[in-house]
Amino acid sequence: MNRHMELRYQVECQHDVAVVRCSGRLVRGTALDEFRRRLEQLEHVRVLVVDLSEVEQLDAGGLGVLLLVRRGARQHSVQMKLVNPSPFVLRVLEATHLTSVFEISSLEEALCILQAPGDRPHFAVA
User: Fold this and answer.
1) How far is the C-alpha of 125 from the C-alpha of 59, rounded, in Å?
2) Mind listing the pLDDT tens digit for each residue in 64-113?
3) Helix boundaries (H) for the chain
4) Least packed by Cβ within 10 Å: which of 3, 60, 64, 114?
5) Minimal CA–CA distance to 30: which of 10, 1, 71?
């Protein structure tokens, strides 16, 4: 298998927000099982942001894992957002009617929503 197509992900946690950047193939297999276990092990998270902008393939196994992670997140009162789904991933989510199940947004929208109450955006002045 082409190494560039394997599932790769990076988890960054800051305060109570976890951002997971995914790339490659979100498809059934060992890498997907490890991905699911890693996300289920996250602790002290209020918001889980899953960036799908570089996911090139998604199959029923990948959809199933996203749904399992969503269910686990809801059970622990964690808000889960899918951000920047690639065009292919968005088509799959639309075809399976899962756009109504997942919160989907751009990363910028998600970051604005995640601002602490009372925080005001800072703008540079030229």
Assistant:
1) 46
2) 999 999 999 999 999 999 999 999 999 999 999 999 999 998 877 766 76
3) 30-40, 60-75, 87-95, 107-114
4) 3
5) 1
What are the structure tokens assigned to 117, written together? 């109450």
The answer to whether the predicted template modeling score (pTM) of the entire model surpasses 0.90 is no
**Which pLDDT does position 108 carry in this prediction?**
73
Lookup: tokens for 102? 């997942």
User: Which residues make Cβ contacts (< 8 Å) with residue 68, sequence separation at least 6?
Assistant: 36
Query: Checking phi first, is residue 22 left (phi over 0); if not, alpha (psi -120 to 50) or beta?
Result: beta
- On whether the CB atoms of residues 93 and 99 are closer than 8 A, the answer is yes
Evaluate whether the domain defined by 3-105 bears CATH number 3.90.580.10: no
Phi and psi, residue 68, nearest 5°:
-65, -45
Encoded tokens for 110: 């998600």
Q: What's the one-letter identity of residue 82?
A: L
- Bridge partners for 21 per DSSP: 10, 51
